Known about the structure:
This protein is of the alpha/beta class. It has 14 helices and 29 strands. The strands form eight sheets. It has a seven-stranded mixed sheet with strand order 12-27-28-29-25-26-13. Strands 23-20-21-22-14-17-24 form a seven-stranded mixed sheet, with no helix packed on it. α9 (237-247) links the parallel β8 (226-230) and β9. The longest helix is centred in the N-terminal third of the chain and has 17 residues, at 42-58. It is elongated, with a radius of gyration of 31 Å. The chain starts with a helix and ends with a helix. 36% of the residues are buried. Residues 1-5 and 556-561 have low confidence and may be disordered.
Amino acid sequence: MSEERVSLNFLEHIIEEDLEKGYQKAQLRFRFPPEPNGYLHIGHASSICLNFGLGLKYGAPVNLRFDDTNPAKEEQEFVDAIKRDVEWLGYQWDTERYASDYFDQLYDWAVLLIEQGKAYIDSQSSEDMAKQKGTPTEAGSESPFRNRSVEENLALFEGMKAGKFEEGTHVLRAKIDMASSNMLMRDPIMYRILHKAHHRTNTDWCIYPMYDWTHGESDYIEQVSHSFCTLEFAMHRELYNWFLDQVYEEGNMRPKQREFARRNLSHTVVSKRKLLQLVEGNVVSSWDDPRMPTISGLRRRGYTPESIRNFADTIGIAKRENLIDVSLLEFHVRDHLNKVAPRVMGVLNPLKIVLTNYPEEQEEWLDAENNPGDEAAGFRKVPFSRELYIEKEDFKEEANRKFFRLKLGGEVRLKNGYIIKAESCTKDTNGNIIEVQCTYDPKSKSGSGSEESLRKVKGTLHWVSIKHALEAEIRLYDRLFTDESPDTHKDKDFMEFVNPDSLEVITGYLEPSLKNARIEDRVQFQRIGYFCVDPDTTSEKIVFNKTVGLRDTWAKITQSS
Length: 561
């Protein structure tokens, strides 16, 4: 067996085996079928990368099909957001489809099943139906309406379609086996009444097909070859195949459903219901809040499509569910941004530095590399003057020998600039240091070629010139939950684990090269982390979101707790 064949995931093995058994590559077709009842999240990203990745690998078309059969929860807003997310991730679908495209065909097929005695109208209450369904170890009992005549069933179904009945009065059920060991096969519901306007068909319909009836038949209509679902649909496969049996015609492609495991991400939840709870409870600002695991949220936070695709590729496809530490996702965005993000200087917790021997009115513009790892990124000019900001934590009056930043009597180099020495400091009435007086060595300018410029000091600090600094709102985001599995505790609600420190808003001071930064521009604030420009930015105020730090600080927190 070739090395390439061994490296295939188990779904690719299935495809390869089908090709060996007679499938033609031209017959392959995949689909990504989201329900437009919320925004896509990181779990969907794995499914997107899987299906569209297979399309690219095999040169096969991939449909984007919206499973829009529940007008009570679905909206055009979500359709638009899903399309944006798929395109942003770098994929293009072959055709855009909707389950609602097939409402007429699905209805006609349902009528055919009624005529064949394979479906009937049940007029029981939902509570009574639940009681007669039985248990996994006990067979169900037949509905008292199971043996209605074909004529009565057809008349009732037509009445349901015509809007003659209230919600909950009737449903259409498939007539399969009330004693089946698979409870999904115990006369599953195919249609229910919903007097609600649909985002595409408006009020044309007041009966809507259920997922199990819709999904496989939609795959069949589109001639999808392989329908890949997550593991919770494994028990649905038998019903998927039963429904296909009722409509399949020789010579057509018969879709094949296979299942793969979800990859759960630590310190988050991906249930749409729970994500909606976070939005409606104002725990987060919106579906695209940078703390949300939605693709829109990750994008707003500064994640790149490449980092998400690389993450999906790393975790791969498996048959068992497991928990993926969010630090792996953070690693991938850090790794990609390290290659592509320009380096800039910004001070988030400012302490004033005065260079007492630097002329008061003098200023100069220093050369600074945009990205040391990318020669093509070039250089920019950074202003330097007598009064600067550095980070407060970069100065101590007294410090031990392992403190390589600025201390009284000690020297450091200012990035791209000069070597400075701390001579004295000024404190407020509470004893807090508010200013440090320093001297600079005018011969030590970086890149000047002088002997002094080559002099080695152990610390290098970032800084900004106060009179040139761009004031910005900085949003420091952290993990939304303190627990790695917030929704798995039987005795606690997931909301109890919301991190109260997941957002801190501060004022930062940035080098002026960022004045014209555009929304979603990503940069590295040197020695701090990666940040991106938020859509809330205006001509009067620039807003930056923290994407991720330069190092994984949560690892230390976890080890010390």
